[in-house]
Design a protein that fits this description.
Layout (H helix, E strand, L loop, with lengths): L10 H15 L4 H22 L1 H4 L8 H12 L3 E3 L4 H6 L2 H9 L3 E2 L3 E3 L6 H15 L18 E3 L6 H6 L4 E2 L2 E3 L1 H12 L4 H8 L6 H10 L3
Antiparallel strand pairs: 1-3, 2-3, 4-6, 5-6
Amino acid sequence: MVIVMPSIFTLANLFFGIWSIVLASRPLGAGARLRLARRLLAWTRDLVSGLLAPLLGASAADLSAAARGLIYQLQQGLGTIPALEAAPQLQSLTSDDRTALRRIGVRVGRHVVFVPALLSADAIAARVALANAHIAPGRAPARLIDLPRPGTASLRVDPDLPAPSYAAIGYPAFGARAIRADLADGIAARLRGGARPPDIASRLGCRVAEIASVRKALLSELH
């Protein structure tokens, strides 16, 4: 049996997050609300479908139950999931599964499973918009996730924001920093190899004081 972790990033949650923002900004009559709701639902569906096209086109015939479960989690996580959250699936993957996953553009790392194509600037912009739409109700704009500049290696983790929100934009949280998915395993390898905190801080664009928590988060996953 495939065990899948629940995700907060369902289409319904995203739609209602956007819907609540619209209603809070402008009162509408019943007819206008209905028309707008239909358009928003279609827009949200199209945005998510376009973003996740590499995963939605995966052929189930080529994948085991564990690999299909992993694809499902990636779809729910907008293309990135911490490896710990997919441990049962990862432990059950066969060599054929790993080959098939690579073929459809999924990279299985030691700490992160992600789709490199969904780390482009345009994809991250869409992911940030969707993540903020989910967490926006009841929050001031200052409490949302800022769009990272192209090439940003890591972000400061706001403890008041849901940790899955960072993974959903392609920057899973490890301690005080949310590290871009394609860099996390490399940073972990350097830490295992004894890299000094200033070197890691330089690569992540952060303060040296934050590296202790990053080290603890990444290296503790190995035990």
